[in-house]
Amino acid sequence: MMSEPDTGGGERQAGAAPLSAVELRVNDQVRRLELDPRTSLLDALREHLRLSGTKKGCDHGQCGACTVLVNGRRINSCLTLAVMHEGDEVVTIEGLGAPDDLHPMQRAFVECDGFQCGYCTPGQICSAVGMLAEVRAGSPSHATAEVASSRISLTDEEIRERMSGNICRCAAYPNIVAAIRGIAEGGAA
């Protein structure tokens, strides 16, 4: 098949869908892209913006490795199209903190040894930050004992339920829960 250059660095197949202009605010920077409208947010971040911290695990929304924050809410970036997020605020692991200035949740994961191979860690951290925002907003989960209460008790069971969309194949779950608990009890996420 004939191919033509793609402004995002790859190659487009002849007869492919026309490109769509998309403007995203990623990690406090406005980014303008020309994308095939079928491009997932995950692929826009990794392949077009070269933000490789967000991981492609299952590419089916089952593992959570691709979790990012969009307008403050956690989402699986493999399950949404980039064009759907025109003008949205997207925060990836690279936007939470820097190596010399870690986000409190990143620091907690390091201090609690909340990772082993590290592949799922960016998604786990983004999900944990989003999850704590949900708790502060009073959003109950399946495990919330008192759904009418204005304050949610963040038990280990509650944390595990809320983080159940993020899989750690190395099974660092006790340390992940400890990291989240540490931030919830004393740190600022």
Automatic annotation (TrEMBL):
Pfam families associated with the record: Fer2 (PF00111), Fer2_2 (PF01799)
**Entry's Gene3D superfamilies?**
3.10.20.30, [2Fe-2S]-binding domain
- Tell me which residues make up the 2Fe-2S ferredoxin-type domain: 20-96
| Cited PROSITE patterns | 2FE2S_FER_1, 2FE2S_FER_2
Q: Which SUPFAM superfamilies match?
A: 2Fe-2S ferredoxin-like, CO dehydrogenase ISP C-domain like
Q: Is-annotated flag, keyword Chloroplast?
A: no
Q: Does the keyword Iron apply?
A: yes
* Top-level taxon of the source organism: Bacteria
Q: Which UniProt keywords apply?
A: Iron, Metal-binding, Oxidoreductase
Annotated protein name in UniProt: 2Fe-2S ferredoxin-type domain-containing protein
| Organism of derivation | Streptomyces kronopolitis
